[in-house]
Amino acid sequence: xxxxxxxxxxxxxxxxxxxxxxLNWGMVLLLCLVVAVGIAMLFSAANGSMEPWASRxxxxxxxxxxxxxxxxxxxxxxxFRFAYLFYFGSLLLLGAVEVxxxxxxxxxxxxxxxxxxxxxxxxxKVALILALARYFHGISGEEVGRPTFLLLPIGLVLAxxxxxxxxxxxxxxxxxxxxxxxxxFCAGVRWWKxxxxxxAGLAVMPVAWQFLHDYQKDRVLTFLNPENDPxxxxxxxxxxxxxxxSGAVTGKGFMQGTQSHLNxxxxxxxxxxxxxxAEEFGLVGSLTLLGLYCLLLAYGFAIAFRARxxxxxxxxxxxxxxLFLYVFINMSMVMGIFPVVGVPLPxxxxxxxxxxxxxxxxxxxxxxxxxxxxxxxxxGTPGA
Amino acid sequence: MLxxxxxxxxxxxxxxxxxLLGGAQSLLLAGLAGRMYYLQVIEADRYKTLAEDNRxxxxxxxxxxxRIVDRFGLPxxxxxxxxxVVLVREHAGDVEMVLKALSQIIDLDDHDYKRxxxxxxxxxxxxxxxxxxxxxxxxxxxxxxxxxxxxxxxxEMGQIRDYPFADSMAHVLGYxxxxxxxxxxxxxxxxxxxxxxxxxxxxxxxxxxxxxSAGTSQIEVNAYGRVIRELSRDExxxxxxxxxTIDGGLQTFTHQRLMAEQSAAAVVMDVENGDVLAMxxxxxxxxNAFNIGLTVKQWNDLLNDQxxxxxxxxxxxxxxxxxxxxxxxxxxxxxxGIRSDHKVFCPGHMTLGRSRFHCWKRHGHGxxxxxxxxxxxxxxxxxxxxxxxxxxxxxxxANHFGLGQEVGxxxxxxxxxxxxxxxxxxxxxxxxxxGGETLITAIGQGxxxxxxxxxxTMTARxxxxxxxxxxxxRGVRAGAGPTEAGGVAPPDFPPLDVPLEHLRVVRDGMDAVxxxxxxxxxxxxxxxxxxELAGKTGTAQVRRISMAERAAGVTKNEQLPWRRRDxxxxxxxxxxHKPRYCCAVVVEHGGGGSAVAAxxxxxxxxxxxxxxxxxxxxxxxxxxxxxxxxx
Lengths: 384, 631
Known about the structure:
- The complex is a heterodimer.
- Chain A has 15 helices and 3 strands.
- Chain A is mainly alpha-helical.
- Chain A has a domain at 3-83 and 189-309 and 316-370.
- Chain A has a 3-stranded antiparallel beta sheet.
- In chain A, a hairpin with a 2-residue loop joins strand 1 (102-104) and strand 2.
- By secondary structure, chain B is an alpha+beta fold.
- Among the domains of chain B are: 83-139, no CATH class; 322-402 and 416-450, Beta-lactamase (3-Layer(aba) Sandwich).
- Chain B is built from 23 helices and 20 strands.
- At the A-B interface, helix 8, helix 11, helix 12, helix 13 and helix 14 of A face helix 1 and helix 2 of B.
């Protein structure tokens, strides 16, 4: 086989200028719009002040933009090569939280690096997707069909999921499993194996219930009947729904949300920021933001379809699905159709790690677009 | 090429499955949009209501309590501004430091200090805690001047009930105090902290009218209950101003005059319309103290005082009427056919069966007719006629004059007293009536018990000839200013069911008591031309005089311990020929009616006629007062 058969028929080695030209500016614009919405809401949450949230979020967005462009412009083969390293590095950090993590909100989630308080679990979401994309890139379609070839990726998923669960962070663990599941699925794992896992999962559920913390049980029970205990565990959900619904079609106006500004809404700058948006801008506002996310997701899928190597396809799909999971879980949570699990609204909620990792993952998706025509060999060496 | 084919195959498989995944995600996102539509369009109204309920609190604004004024508009109970120092913890910072600084400016006792610290620690940081009430102007200005050194300390203005007449009006007006558990009716106003309701007297009887209706303030609160701003305000309706029949000046005079005695009561009434012009009971208490709050000791002292300062003796004190009952007996005798010129010989005693009933005059009055019997208060005459009339006829006449039942004044706590009949004794004592008991009843002793208010009512009916019912409230005036329009018709009472000539006989007898040199109260007459009074003395024994004592000579009252001395009574009306005012006086253990009670009544009636409250123009009234439902 000629060496160039492995490589793109077009010029594989692009100059930086070409790459910048190839950047997906539509996606960048969408992203900026979503972040702008977030900063506006943080401004409102602080009663019309840039302090303490909006200004810091803006600075992080600046940092995030740098990381995003860097991730987009770095050659995808480099990402391919360092995927496992990145994965194990994240796993190590995740293990470190167990040892030295700060206690935050009753759960160990952060690791303090002095300047940045890092949530390794957020990092892990990207790292796992990278690692899985690399693994499935490396095996053939036939091998995907064999159970033995699935043992390693399952291990890759379960190790971080178990650590995250122990923190305990039900939301992140769930997201890891679901994103990985989507990748398994698109990598070609047989249908019946999914069915088996789902049946097994349902069977284990009553046992797993015993291992849940009381507050987690509360959240699930509350989700099942939020008005059962309106001042106790159901308070957050009920107040969020009141905020959401009272926004009606056009909303109460920017900075006029009574539920949020009178503090009936919990965590209004983080997990429940979407409620505040819905209260102040109504259905118009909430559908607009949902629309922006849909466009962003559509871009992600389009890039996955367009990529010419399995690694980029799976990477773009995995990261897009990850974004979807954030959006879906957070929105359904604040609208009372999902238990309160502490998943923020990506790019909008206040919080550094999520903003940075989501922007970085969007950078990776763009990288998949820029390097869409590059072919990568099974073991990662481009060509002979 | 093999690998390339396989790669194409892999891409197709990926695309198929990614499409499925994308489709599933789109469906879920569409579900989110549906949920948004459901919450924000279909259920929007419900959630809007819930959001409003969340943020809007209704706060009741206590209405200012209506004033109580006397018949000429003189304020008897009004509202005074009450300045209090309040402390807000979250503004104060170090509460103890601020309190220490404050205690150098105003008086703060240890008790207050500890209470504030306790309340501050229990309440939320933004809830004001009252440090002290009833600040003087001087203290207010000192706190204001030192404002910068006292973070979190502010002066708040409230209202407190003020009784300018203090103890001279205490029994009529009653007082206001914090709402007790049993007073709660579900009316939210009553649950306001610091709200006070009428607890006695007029304040209690007309509480509803005086209370007014609460205003409301709609306030926006946050999730912690902190007030953000006021959205709207409705001031409510202040309590009605209640106009009493009382003449404040006369009331003060009456009270002052009684103060010379340890324990006494007096009632002055208008004989034509039943207006109570003065009603006093001593000893009394200062109702202002109840506003500020009594200490347990102060309260117990009042409660356990042997002279019962908290009791309005004018309507709750029960006394044997003594000889003041004789007018009723005389009228009963006239009604049953005994002529006024019927004469009885008084040898100083009368024997019935084995008992001997004495006249107060040891050697007797000789031959007396009805006029003389009243003038001299001859007991034997009334023993004699009572045997002919019978106790039940006497009782019927007494009832007609308001004795033996609540007269129906607009105050709580009135007592009915006792006018015995045969049936009454059987029912209440369980024995049949003895003949001698009729004799004792005829001189207002034995079972007979009356209140000073009943005696005043009796005298008013006797003097005026109408079945007057005493009243204290003339009605309400809306707002504060007098209105000329309308007017409540004065009560029109039916005439007594007694012939005028019968009344004349009795009135003439009473005239002689005071104005004939040999009358029992001649020394306590009014000498001013045209203001003369007619009266009747009464001396109610509180002990039984034994045969042995009588033989040795009855012990003089002054020699007895106070508790065993006779009650002194005097009922009177004036002017004698054109009666307008009447007055009943009871002095507990005062001794003789003529020596002790009569001079007091004379002074009061003289003052009453000089002031002539019924003859002067009083305040116009627009409506009768609304009476509280509580009983």
